[in-house]
Amino acid sequence: MIINNLPFKAHHFLENLVKETSGSLKKDCLEHVFELSKELGKGSITGFSFGEGIELLLFNCEFHKDIVILFEKHAVAPIQINFLVQGGVKHFFNNNYIQYYLNPLEGTITADVFDSKNGFEFPQNQKIVLASLMIDRKKYINKIDCLIDKMPERLAAVFLDMDAKEPFLYQGNYSITSSECIQKILQDEHKGLVRSTYLEGVTLELLSCQIKQFKDSTLPQSKQVALRKYDVERIFEAKEILLERIKEPPTIKTLAKLVGLNQTKLKAGFKAVFDKPVKTWLRDRQLEIARLLILEQEMSIRNIAETVGYKNQSHFSKRFQEKYGILPKNFAQEMKIKLNDYK
């Protein structure tokens, strides 16, 4: 079965998919959910349209027949960043001159040329879990204009190719941090504006992880950290300890003793596995949890700060503003207004 001419924008993609099939569509805030008909398969395809040209399609389904989905041809294609969790998918673009198979735990960054055939092939009777992030370059460039110079030259050229003149493909296993972002998206059970706002932050982190992974793949082998299976297991244990003790996390010295690694191995290994130093990862996770608690509107800012390990509310507010560009009290007020309007 071939489904033609679907837009790259997530909501329009699903609205057109409904017209071409007998499935149903539910709309909630920034999220649209397409439920497959019994004839087509089972499961769902979820679409998020975030700000500044960022779209996300999440396939969590099984088709009963071979399906080919073709995107609209007469358009400037976005940068597509794909992450396959389960199943097997074929992606083709540049009028079929570029074709590749995406396997579990693999991710890609692709860019198609203008007016080109671009689409996915999904096999029948196979569970597919695929996250496809799409970046409209003309809209997104305003957000990252100051960061372009820090990107690898090849990737920067892709983001600056506003008229989609050159094709691009990067493929490799995605990082553990990317995997955790995808699991957050799959497992989040919030609803409405809280869910959309939270997942927008997770999606931006996912984008950042893939850009960093591309950058790291260009480093010489001598600068990459080699870890044994034992080391990786201990590093994951360290991460769980930090999460369990988020309010009063142990020092790196204590953490190293708890997991049976020396401090040097713990710090180097943690950064290699999670893309960030221990202290940076912990601070980001504390602030992420705090942001979600503010979204839920059930605790005071002071209690939230204490819950994530900040005894000084002013220090917490400063860190929160550094990460999210807004004071927590102002963020809480904005969300309260938006939630009232949403209701």
Brief overview:
The chain has 343 residues and is of the alpha+beta class. 45% of the residues lie in helices and 24% in strands. It has helices spanning 10-20, 137-144, 153-160, 176-187, 192-217, 229-244, 252-259, 263-274, 278-296, 301-307, 313-324, 328-342, and strands at residues 2-6, 24-28, 31-35, 41-49, 54-63, 67-71, 79-86, 89-93, 98-102, 106-111, 119-122, 127-135, 168-173.
Order of helices and strands: EHEEEEEEEEEEEHHEHHHHHHHHH
Rounded Rg: 21 Å
Task: Just name the CATH architecture of the largest domain.
Answer: Sandwich
- Major sheet strand order: 2-3-4-5-12-7-10-13
User: What is the count of distinct domains?
Assistant: 2
